[in-house]
């Protein structure tokens, strides 16, 4: 052997280096500064607490909500609507996106309609869905599905087309069929895009459900938000907003976690919004 | 080394094809873009390669050497002429051929071993026996211990060596190489040339090697096919009588220099050749 190469050392434990990742300190620091400023500076500035409640009041309100069984009922409803709509929208986008990217005729036939429909502000459809599907969960599920469908579709189509020509050629030389090229190169190449679509989609789905609840509902966090608004319970509104943010964040990190596990080779992929 | 050699298994094959394993005759290639004038890429190319022979193709940039190789690989169709490998007309990629590309084109989501296994996998060959062969090949090129690493953990030279293993794993009779070391630094390149000759000696493939480096072609080959600038036609076929095995010191020897000078004279004024 002319050259011997030592295999690199296996599994080094990741050590947290503050010089490399200053955000570990800076992010909580900003939080503390903003919350403290919000808590103690508004009083001298003359901003009334009933207009902009203090963090301590919001925390108290949030604590009250979390102890209320009815609140959990609202959260559960919104969660169901978002997830059901998300799964429907995302699955439909996966199927249609695959067909569009792989079959020229499907693309040419459907693309004009998709572009046309994409320009419609989906939120504006919410009243229509309530008329069609009623005040129950169905109208919100449809809303969440429609609104999470498009970012997913765009990413699936783009991702399935992003495969490197050299890689396809390499597989072709070794005798791969079209189906094998799809499985071995196109699909893995699309995965980071698909995760980007999933990531945007989940946030959109929650948005869709809440907007649907604004228009007409008897339960859900959107409904609760309106109720607190009518009662001029501003700290109550903030509490709901905090819960909605946490919901979105948890979903986002869950998908990021799955992405790092499944599409581990592409840390930062191109994200396509819609 | 326990690598199954092609020479050993080849002796039983048809005796007549022994003389000319690859036949190219009257080969023409035109590119006909839809809205512009057709380009004449290759003109009246004719040469043969004997079984087990190492033939290089050199020529200035844009002379069609890569086009020629892609036609041999069955990746692009010829316009006119005869292209045969082991007596069979080449119309699409054939399993008797392995190819090494300008870049290693390893799939980042597969380990080195999984990458090397691609030809066996797409051709539906026995996985267990070919995995054993893949490990032997990797060990032969000094990559033992790297089987389960991912491509980004390897240097460019190591990736290209894995690419060579991938081209050899299904034991093809013919190895086509398209400027495989063009992207490597000079030191690594020399080292890879020596490695390649050693692999060739052990595995006995028929090799067609495209390069724009005259000295590389002289060092490696039994014969060098010299192409003229576009449209590429054969300027000369130069037999390199430098004996075997060859040592890297041969590169700077007077004997090799004579060949390099003779080939270079074809390109005086043609430019774009090192």
TrEMBL record, chain A:
Limits of the ABC transmembrane type-1 domain: 75-259
Record-linked Pfam families: BPD_transp_1
GO BP, one annotated term: transmembrane transport
Protein keywords: Cell membrane, Membrane, Transmembrane, Transmembrane helix, Transport
Location(s) in or outside the cell: Cell membrane
Residue ranges of the TM segments: 21-41, 83-101, 113-135, 141-160, 193-215, 235-255
Membrane topology: Multi-pass membrane protein
GO CC, one annotated term: plasma membrane
UniProt keyword Secreted, yes or no: no
Keyword Nucleotide-binding tagged: no
Gene3D superfamilies: MetI-like
Domain of life from the UniProt record: Bacteria
PANTHER family named among the record's database cross-references: ABC TRANSPORTER PERMEASE PROTEIN HI_0355-RELATED, ALKANE SULFONATE ABC TRANSPORTER-RELATED, MEMBRANE SUBUNIT
Family in the record: Belongs to the binding-protein-dependent transport system permease family.
Protein name as it appears in the record: ABC transporter permease
UniProtKB/TrEMBL annotation, chain B:
Sample GO molecular function, one term: ATP hydrolysis activity
Keyword Nucleotide-binding: yes
Record's keyword terms, sorted: ATP-binding, Nucleotide-binding, Transport
Highest taxon of source: Bacteria
Domain ABC transporter, residue spans: 22-254
InterPro entries given in the database record: AAA+_ATPase, ABC_transporter-like_ATP-bd, ABC_transporter-like_CS, ABC_transporter_ATP-bind, P-loop_NTPase
Protein name: ATP-binding protein
Provenance organism: Acrocarpospora macrocephala
């Amino acid at each position: 052997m002319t050259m011997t190469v030592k295999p690199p050392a296996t599994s080094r434990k990741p050590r947290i280096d503050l010089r490399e990742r200053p955000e570990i300190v800076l992010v909580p620091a900003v939080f503390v500064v903003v919350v403290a400023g919000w808590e103690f500076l508004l009083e001298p500035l003359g901003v009334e607490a009933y207009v902009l409640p203090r963090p301590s009041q919001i925390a108290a309100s949030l604590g009250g909500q979390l102890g209320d069984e009815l609140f959990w009922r609202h959260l559960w409803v919104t969660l169901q609507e978002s997830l059901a709509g998300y799964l429907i929208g995302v699955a439909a986008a996966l199927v249609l996106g695959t067909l569009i990217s792989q079959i020229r005729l499907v693309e040419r036939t459907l693309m004009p309609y998709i572009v046309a429909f994409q320009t419609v502000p989906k939120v504006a459809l919410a009243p229509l869905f309530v008329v069609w599907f009623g005040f129950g969960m169905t109208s919100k599920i449809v809303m969440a599905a429609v609104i999470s469908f498009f970012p997913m579709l765009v990413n699936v189509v783009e991702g399935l087309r992003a495969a490197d020509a050299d890689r396809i050629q390499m597989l072709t030389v070794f005798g791969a069929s079209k189906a094998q090229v799809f499985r071995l190169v196109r699909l893995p190449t699309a995965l980071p895009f698909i995760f980007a679509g999933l990531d945007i989609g989940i946030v959109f789905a929650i948005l869709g459900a809440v907007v649907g609840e604004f228009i007409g509902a008897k339960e859900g966090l959107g409904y609760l938000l309106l109720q607190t608004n009518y009662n001029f319970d501003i700290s109550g509104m903030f509490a709901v907003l905090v819960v909605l943010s946490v919901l979105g964040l948890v979903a986002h990190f869950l998908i990021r976690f799955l992405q790092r596990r499944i599409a581990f080779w592409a840390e930062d992929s191109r994200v396509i919004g819609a | 080394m326990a690598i199954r050699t092609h020479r050993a298994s080849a002796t039983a094959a048809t005796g007549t094809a022994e003389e000319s394993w690859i036949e190219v005759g009257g080969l023409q290639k035109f590119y006909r873009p839809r809205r512009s004038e057709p380009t004449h890429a290759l003109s009246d190319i004719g040469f043969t390669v004997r079984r087990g022979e190492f033939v290089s193709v050199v020529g200035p940039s844009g002379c069609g050497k890569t086009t020629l190789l892609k036609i041999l690989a069955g990746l692009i169709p010829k316009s006119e002429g005869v292209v045969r490998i082991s007596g069979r007309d080449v119309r699409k990629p054939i399993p008797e051929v392995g190819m090494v590309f300008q870049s290693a084109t390893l799939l980042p989501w597969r380990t080195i071993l999984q990458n090397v296994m691609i030809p066996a996998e797409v051709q539906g060959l026995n996985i267990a026996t070919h995995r054993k062969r893949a490990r032997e090949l990797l060990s032969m090129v000094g990559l033992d211990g790297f089987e389960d690493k991912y491509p980004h953990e390897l240097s460019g030279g190591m990736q290209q060596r894995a690419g060579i293993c991938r081209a050899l794993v299904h034991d093809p009779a013919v190895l086509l190489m398209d400027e495989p070391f063009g992207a490597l630094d000079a030191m690594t390149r020399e080292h890879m040339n020596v490695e390649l000759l050693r692999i060739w000696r052990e595995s006995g493939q028929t090799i067609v090697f495209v390069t724009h480096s005259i000295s590389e072609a002289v060092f490696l080959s039994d014969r060098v096919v010299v192409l003229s600038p576009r449209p590429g036609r054969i300027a000369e076929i130069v037999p390199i009588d430098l004996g075997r095995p060859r040592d890297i010191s041969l590169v700077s020897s007077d004997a090799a220099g004579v060949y390099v000078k003779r080939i270079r004279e074809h390109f005086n004024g043609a430019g774009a050749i090192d």
